[in-house]
Each structure stands twice: as C-alpha cells, then as structure tokens.
Amino acid sequence: MTHPSTTGPAPVLALRDVSKSFGAVRALRDVSLELFPGEVHALAGENGAGKSTLIKTLAGVHRPDSGQVLLDGAPVAFHGPGDARDAGIAVIYQEPTLFPDLSIAENIFMGRRPRRSLGRIDHKATHAATLALMRRLDVQLDPDRPARGLSIADQQIVEIAKALSFDARVLIMDEPTAALTGSEVARLFNVVRTLREQGAAVLFISHRLEEIFQICERVTTLRDGAWIASEPLAGMTEDDLVRRMVGRDLDELYPKQDVVPGEVALSVRRLTREGVFTDVSFEVRRGEIVGLAGLVGAGRTEVARAVFGVDRWDAGEVSVGGKALVNGAPSTAMAAGLALVPEDRRAQGLVMDMSIERNIGLTGLRTTVKAGLMDRGAERSRSLDWAVKLQVKYARIADAVSTLSGGNQQKVVLAKWLATRPDVLIVDEPTRGIDVGTKAEVHRLLSELAADGVAVLMISSDLPEVLGMADRVLVMHEGRLTAEIPRSEATEETVMAAATGRAAA
Amino acid sequence: MTVTTPEQAPVAEVPKEGATRLVDRVFKMRELAILIVFLVMIAVTQAGNSEFLTEQGIKDLLLNATILVLVAVGQSLVVITRNVDLSVGSTLGITAFAAGTYLQGGGDPVVAVVLAVLLGVGFGLLNGLLVSLGQVPALVVTLGTLYIIRGIDSIWVGSRQITAADLPDGFVDFGSGGVSAVPYLALIALAVLVATAYYLKHYGSGRELYALGSNPEAARLAGIPVRKRILAAYTFCGAVTGLAGAMYLARFGNVDSGTGSGYELTVVSAVVVGGVVFTGGSGSVYGAALGAMLLTSINSVLPALGVSSVWVLAINGILLILAIAVDRIVALRVASALKKRNARHA
Ligand SMILES: Nc1ncnc2c1ncn2[C@@H]1O[C@H](COP(=O)(O)OP(=O)(O)O)[C@@H](O)[C@H]1O
Ligand SMILES: [Mg+2]
C-alpha cells in the first residue's frame, strides 16, 4: 500500500481522513485519496462501497462530516458544486444530470455560457463551441436538439462533452462507460489520454475491470466505506483487485447449474414489428436460461417489450404455457406468468422516490389488496421476504429506492418481479453497471430460478455473461434472429460473427 | 447512437436533424395555434356583430387583457421553475388599495405606482423565501399566503371603498387614455412582456429558470443557485402583480377588500392555456400573454354575439382542458418522434 514518493509533484486534489454519514449509514470512514497531475487514478469497490459519495465530496455536493478536502495542498471548503467547478474540477456523475427541456448546447454550457455585450448569452458561440466538442468526441449530435429522448449512451456523451467544455485540472468520472459501446469507450479513453498528457488528473470509476487496467496507473479501493489500499496497478491481476474489493476470494462468477430442460414455457412465432424487428421465432423451455445476444440496437429490447405487451406487434404470436397472449396487454402477460425486468431501471423499473417496500409491493397489489384496501402488513412482509432473499443492502425497508446504490436498486427490481412468482422471466441487461460481487449474486439467483423450473430469457451485451450463463444463445442482427447456438458451440467468435451479420447463412 | 464511423470524415457542420426542426416547429406552433384561435374568434365575432371592432371596441379588448397579461407574465416565470404563486389575486387587491389610499391622501401618482410595486416585491419575497427555504410545496405555501394577505387586506380595508372620485383626474385619465386605439396601460404591459421574454432568452439567469424547472437535482449539481433563482422568480412575480394592482386602480378606479379574489385561477388558466407547462421547464411568456388575451376576450366576445355571459366560465374550463390535452398529445408525439430518430441512427 505505497504512496508514490513524495518528491514528485504535489497532489492537485486530495481527501484527508474524510468521513461522511447519511443517518445510520456510514458511507465514508476516514478515507484518504491523492490525485496527482498527469495520472489516471481508478476508484474501485463494490456497489455501496462509497465511491459516488467520495466523488460528491470532491465535487462540493456533500460536505465531509470530518476530515478535509485539499486543493493544491491547502484545505478548501466547497460551498456547492459551483465552487468545485470554478476550481477546475469537472465531474461526470453516475446518474445523467441533463435538462430534458433544454438544448444539448445549453446543457453543456449551463452556468458558463459564452457571453457577449451587456452580459447576454452568445448563442452563436455556444453553438459553435458545442459543435467543436462534438467533433472532438467524433459524434454527430445536433447542438440545438433538446436533451429529451436521447438514448442513455447519447446522454452520457453529452455529460462527457460537458466535462470537457472547460479546461479541467481534475476530471472525475463515475461509471461513464456503463452505457457505452466498445468504440465509444475507445474514443473516451483517447480523450482521457489527451487530458492526462496536458497534465490533468483523472479519477475513474468502472465496474469493467479490464477498463481499469487499460487506462489507469493507480487504484484506490474502498470497501464498506473504508479505505483499503492505494497502489500502482502494474503487477496486479484482476483477481487481486477483486479480492481487495470484496475482501474474500470471489466465488465463481458464472455459477451455472446443469439442468434438463422441461416443456416449452415461452413460444414466440414469427413475431414482427414493422421497422423494428422481423420474423422472430424462438422457444424457451422450463429450466433453461436462453441468452439473447447482439449489438446495441439490434432489436433485442424491442422484442422483449413486444413479447411482454408493452409495445404492440404487427404479426406473429406469443404463447406462455401453451396459451396465446393478447397483443399489447402487459396485464394478461403478467397473469399468464410472464415477468420483464427492464433495461433502464431508473426510468422503467422503479419509482425512485417510493420506498423499497412499496416498490417491491407494486407487482403484488392484486394479492395484497383486500376488499379494495391495501393490506400494508401483507405488503411489508412480502417485500421484506424478497429483500432478504436477494440480500438487498439497505438501512430501513421504508427508505426511498433512490438512496440505494445501483446494484441494490437492480436487486429491488428483480425482487419486485420475482415476487410475482413468474414461470417465464425476461431480464434485459440484468447486470449492467453493477459490481462483480452483486453480479455473481444475480447470476446465482438466475441459475437457481432456472433450476426451480423457471424459463429465463436473458438479454445481455456482456459476452462473457452470455457465454457463462446461457444454455443456448440466440443472436440478433438488425432486427432479425441470425443464429441459435447451443452452449457447447457458443464462443466469442461464433456469437460475434452472428451479431455483426458475418455468420454463414 | 449517433456516431460516425471512423472512415467518415468529420463534417464541418452537423445538418439540423429532422427531430430538432420538428420540436422547434411544435413549440412555435403552440403559440401560433393560440394566436389563430384568438384571431378566428375575433373574426367570427366581427362577422356576427360589425360593431365589435370599433376603435373603442379594440381599446376595451386591450384594456381588459392588459392586467391579466401582466400578472400572467409574472406567473409564467414562477411556473417555469416548477412552482406556482396562488397569492397573486390577494397581492393585486392589497397593492391596488394601498396605492389608492395613498392617492386619496393627495399623493403623487408615480410614487403610488412605485409603492404598489414595492409592496408586491415584499409579498413576492415572502413567498419566495417560504418556498425556497421550507421544504413545502409551492401550492400549499402560496395557498397559505393567499389567505394571509387577503386577511390583512380585509382587516385593514374593512368596509371602506375607493372610487374614481377619490383619485387625481390625471391618474384616472391615464388609465383609460391611449394612443388612438392602443391604451397606455397596454403599452406598459407590452414593454414588460418584451423585456421579460428577452431576458429569458438572452440572459444566463433566465435560462437557469428553465433549467431548474426542467430538472431541479441537475440544476443543483450544475452549481445553479436554485434558491436565489426561485426567490427572484417570486419577487418578479410580486413586482409585476403590484404594478398590475396600480394599473387596476387606474383602469377601474374602484377598489375594495374583495378586489382580485379568485383572480389567481384565471391567471393560472391563462398561463397553462398559453403553453407554459405546469411541471416546469418549458413555455414562453408570449404564449402566456396570448393565453391571457384569449381568456379575457371571451368575456367580450360572448356578449357581442348575444350569448349569455354565464357561459364564460364553462368555456374557460373547456379551453384549459383542451390546452392540457393538446400539450400531452404533442409531448407524446414529439417523444416518439425523437425516439424513432435515435432508433434510426442506431
Ligand atoms: N443521499 C443519500 N442518503 C442516504 N444514503 C445514501 C445517500 N447517498 C448514498 N447513500 C448510501 O451510502 C452508501 C454508499 O453509497 P454510494 O457512495 O452511492 O456507493 P457506490 O457509488 O460505491 O456504489 C450506500 O449504502 C448508500 O445507500
Ligand atoms: Mg455509485
């Protein structure tokens, strides 16, 4: 646990013995961290370890309960995010923080717009500066387009552009890559390298360990709010890092149990939604985990939404347990035993301001309503049951879901749907943006469900996850199912070939 | 995803996306639609009753709209920040009476107007402080101040009344005078309207009002002084309401303890009909002003067409619901159009 020799440059930004609590939750305990000019520093830790809290402390959002923030070696007290920004600290938060009603250009330059005479905004210069940033990131987004309706990845790109829009001495990124594709990540890393060469300090959080090893020189690990180590990455292996994060050897990440598939639980026949996907047919049997792979935008999520009835289909049929489903009727799909855990848990899966208990309870209103009134006791015990089963980490079950870390939010979404005791479970990107420890738990859970006879359809862009968990892999390319590969033949090469449309027909 | 493939040369200028143009058009259309409804209504009335658009007719139409336009402009700023000010009716009443009392005692008209505005600023500050400091929804806070201000007004005014006879002639003449068909009061309201619209578009703090109505949490993270901005919006709303109070006095000359009660609902209707979204972040003061014009002219149109004025309230209600329905449908359309864009880029 060595710090670099003190003869080098002084840290631009540092934390010294910082603690921060939210009620009973001690999010940070005596944490120290030093960021040097020209280094890319990783911050590692499981969900809930306190990474986002640390970042918000550096960014002036939270004030430490004790300890100090040091800027160029001198203690500072940021009175708000504006102060930190003025000190040259740019932050990309985990949750996109855009203004849906304002244009992309305004979003990027909010608070620091180019001015012309009489203090007026220079709209032209703002537009031009935005275009320049877009070019630097090599993306095509119209600066005048409102942020409303942007895909998660595009939102993230706007966030990155925002952070780059001023000459930051410190760039802090909280899981910026969670929603990005490979080429976008590569582009982001190029920008990060340029900044590093210009002498900026970068603090980087990612759950993709290979990214940490690719771009960072040093890593600080947190566990349960406590500082574990700050050390150079050279010479470390991914396993070393995981051990620091979880404090134990990780059980197998893909605990797939072998099962003999039962009868057909979900059958999709020639399903078509015009302009979105065409002629999609497949079956999922009881006890099976079927992976649905493909590039982002191949139409996988759209198929799942149509099957569940959120979107209508134009042709084809869907049946669950031999019974045909009604087109565009999620309630009948639920009644038939189908459950869908959506991709974007913030927008579709959870009511963020509602309690954990009530979020889990939402799907069970039918069973917990007596004579038209909610039976709160029944709801609470049912929710507690599932929260415990899934080992959700929370202070009180009555706390708002928004106070949970990403992985624990994902568990709440899962709990909400598992509480309906589905026969068929569709999960869309079940482990996106969650840490390895929680990821392994989610995998174990899916595996157990399958062993209990649930048919699982798992949409995932995480190839090792698909290969590790699925009995069969379906691959989509541009709205069509291009391959069905049994577990024994599924490799990165075969799946990617089908996903990019290179497979032999 | 809207990403260029590496072999594509970076383009100098991103062509305006169809989606942007669509959204632009929709928002321009929103104001255009009210303008068209307004003009059609006036045209139909004129066709049915050729006496309607005489010089005096136009003047009355404008005079009636002026005060509502002014208060609607102030209210828009508050609504844009995802708040609301329900106390405007009470503020209007008390500022009008204060200005009247001062003038009754032989005061100077200009000082009277300043007095009304300052009193309005005071109540605006009170609302703004309560809303931005307390964690209580604006609806509840300003419902409270609505009653408090009205209560103070009732105790102070009692059964007293101010009539035009108590006021200086110049003041009353100014209230009904104008440049041919355009009343002076309407010109003042127009000046406030244009200045506010310009401020909202061209000044950082104006854009920040939209930002914090659009996403309050993000506004905080962007370092926007949220409380200060909300306080400013309420203060501005109070100030123009005070100005409107003085103008009410000049126009009608008649003020008692009941003046302005129930006015807040008309104001909020005008703002919403004018396309300022109640959940904040979008809309324009021009839209709100048009909404105010539309609502007040119904009052003149119906009698001119020989329809009983008992219909006025019902028609206002229908307009309001229509406006909300249209906004909702348009919002859904726009959202799906933007989504389709994204999908096609993928
Ligand atoms: N605003 C808040 N209120 C209450 N608890 C919070 C808040 N922010 C974070 N926490 C809690 O603090 C702990 C650390 O969270 P966080 O910093 O988000 O972790 P990470 O980013 O490493 O996943 C978690 O237990 C989380 O529930
Ligand atoms: Mg986090």
Automatic annotation (TrEMBL), chain A:
InterPro entries: AAA+_ATPase, ABC_carbohydrate_import_ATPase, ABC_transporter-like_ATP-bd, ABC_transporter-like_CS, P-loop_NTPase. It comes from the Bacteria. The keyword Nucleotide-binding applies. Pfam families: ABC_tran. Keywords: ATP-binding, Cell membrane, Membrane, Nucleotide-binding, Repeat, Sugar transport, Translocase, Transport. PROSITE patterns: ABC_TRANSPORTER_1, ABC_TRANSPORTER_2. Residues 13-249, 254-503 form the ABC transporter domain. The keyword Cell membrane applies. One of its GO terms (molecular function) is ATP binding. This is Sugar ABC transporter ATP-binding protein. It comes from Streptomyces fuscus.
Automatic annotation (TrEMBL), chain B:
The lineage of its organism: Bacteria, Bacillati, Actinomycetota, Actinomycetes, Kitasatosporales. Keywords: Cell inner membrane, Cell membrane, Membrane, Transmembrane, Transmembrane helix, Transport. PANTHER family: ABC TRANSPORTER PERMEASE PROTEIN YPHD-RELATED-RELATED, AUTOINDUCER 2 IMPORT SYSTEM PERMEASE PROTEIN LSRC. The chain crosses the membrane at residues 32-49, 61-80, 110-133, 181-200, 230-250, 262-278, 311-331. It is a multi-pass membrane protein. This is Autoinducer 2 import system permease protein LsrC. It comes from the Bacteria. Part of the ABC transporter complex LsrABCD involved in autoinducer 2 (AI-2) import. Probably responsible for the translocation of the substrate across the membrane. It is found in: Cell membrane. It holds the Pfam family BPD_transp_2. Its main location: membrane. The complex is composed of two ATP-binding proteins (LsrA), two transmembrane proteins (LsrC and LsrD) and a solute-binding protein (LsrB).
